[in-house]
UniProtKB/TrEMBL annotation:
Gene3D superfamilies: GIY-YIG endonuclease
Stretches that traverse the bilayer: none
Residue ranges of domain GIY-YIG in the record: 3-80
Pfam families assigned: GIY-YIG
Species this chain originates from: Pelagerythrobacter rhizovicinus
Family named by the database record: Belongs to the UPF0213 family.
The name this protein goes by in its record: GIY-YIG nuclease family protein
Length: 109
């Protein structure tokens, strides 16, 4: 099975609640988050908008980056997001996902 290690940042909205995660399959993980299948923090706080992701050559590198980002101050995370995504656009739409409905969940759920 081909793996594509990735660190991703989800947000509830612009300057909203942030979630940092790591996965070997970004598309599957996004689907799970957007469908509310993951439960927990992201479901409770409606954190479904993909605002940044970084691809890695191996899972070890991705996990190290995730741990680094989780230690960062909130403002550093915001600066990182805004360095490439100043309007906090939902990057998942560019990956083929439907736009999120106003409540933060994808349309039709």
């Amino acid at each position: 099975m081909e793996r594509d290690p990735c660190v991703y940042i989800l947000a509830s909205g612009r300057h909203g609640t942030l979630y940092i995660g790591v996965t070997s399959d970004l598309m599957q993980r996004l689907y799970q988050h957007r469908a509310g299948m993951t439960g927990g923090f992201t479901a409770r706080y409606k954190v479904h908008r993909l605002v940044r992701y970084e691809m890695f050559g191996d899972m070890e590198g991705a996990i190290l980056r995730e741990k680094q980002l989780k230690r960062w101050h909130r403002q550093w995370k915001i600066n990182l997001i805004e360095s490439e995504n100043p309007h906090w656009a939902d990057l998942a739409v560019g990956l083929g996902f439907d736009p999120l409905a106003a409540g933060g969940r994808r349309n039709g759920s």
